[in-house]
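Incident log, structure service

09:12 report received: a user says their structure output differs between two submissions of the same chain.
09:20 pulled the input from the user's history:
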Amino acid sequence: MKKLLALLLASAMVVSFAACGNDGAGNSADNSDTKDAVETEAAKPGDSASATTDDSDLAYIQDKGTLVVGITDFEPMDYRGDNDEWIGFDADMATAFAKSLGVDVEFVEIVWDDKIMELDGKTIDCVWNGMTLTDEVTSAMDCSDAYCKNAQIVVVPADVADQYQTKESLSGLNFAVETGSAGEDAAESLSLNFTPVETQATALMEVAAGTSDAAIIDSLMAAAMVGEGTSYDNLTYTVELTSEEYGVGFRKGSDLVEKLNQFFTDSYADGSIKTTAEKYGVQAALIEQ
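09:34 re-ran on a clean worker, output below:
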């Protein structure tokens, strides 16, 4: 009799556990209710303020209210005006772009060779500084459409310019080039002797001081800073080494690229980009959008 009661009691307990703890598909009914509640709570919009900004550069810069632009001292694209503010074709266009997004602009002077690290580390939001669209750049950043044509060009003292009119004549010179720049790439590709310096402006100073024989810089900069009526009227430019195009660089996957491309298209259509280019003498380099 005792054995029969024990068996009946054990059977009742098994049935009770099955009813309370299993929904027939191997899932706990009580835990399922709790899980559904947790999932519903987690799905509520607005619970994580960072979810959108982590995925969207546009949301990120609008949330902080500032577009941080990485630049160097590079006339006529980015340089300091009389009131020590950053001006130039790129600086003015970056300011207008930031305004179109409803944010302020902030310019941060960077070491050009560190531009990718600065961008990925979010100390800057874009690189907008007459940046040549090289393979290195386009593989490390998402870039805008090209907006200006450029070339790498040789700058020498005017009194010896007639001696350096071909690529072949350059082999004995010592060049100053901006580190990490297209000018450095050009010097390496031609096996020229060169010393890397911090900026293109520094490269010009080296030639003017006689500590370097020549420099390789962007043609747009050379047109603005070298020759009669400029700060370097004793220098001139001679051989064009490369032809290239400028673009603006953003982080990989950035939704700001599409916004900037549309901004360029609109600015070309309404004439504002041409007006800005004429202000700084770079209108001949503009690429139609």
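09:41 both user submissions now match this output. Likely a transient worker issue. Closing.
09:42 reviewer note: The chain is about 40% helix and 25% strand. Confidence is low (pLDDT under 50) at residues 1-52.
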